[in-house]
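Deliverable D4.2, example record:
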Amino acid sequence: MKTKTDLDARVLDIVEPIAADLGLRIVRLRVMAGRRPTLQIMAERKSDGQMNVSDCEALSRAASAALEVEDPIRDAYVLEVSSPGLERPLTSLEDFEKYEGYLARLELDRLVEGRKRFRGVLAGIDGAHIDIDLDNEKETAQIPFEWISEAKLLITDALIEEGQKAKAALEAETAANDTDNSDN
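Output generated by the structure prediction step:
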């Protein structure tokens, strides 16, 4: 689910090793059509799941250089590099495990019990299956990861609180780095 199209996958093959060298993990990559196509890359640091402006700049510069050489996107395009944000996409089994206990919305690539969209609290993973306590259901549902076409966290007070803590930690880190750099 990091990608949707063959073009997305080709671009990911180019960008993912670059991100890894920078200590980053690609969360999602999309080439979106339009009058001027947009390449959207959502990433986060492997170490703490954060992404600051300097991380975005570093990935943008390195990815731009590699994409200039490989040229997988024919037309001129806009490159957007960002963090996944609070309502982050869930694109790997690890995401579903990491965000256990949080509210999420899943969209499947097929009908299950007459519907494709499900909402509930993530309850972990079991092998290649997502466990989710669906709204208004008594039992935990188990959905094969491969059936999920889109998934994202939904904003709740708990998610906002965690986001604020992460933001405060990031600001403290940035301030400490700025102090260290000014001493040189």
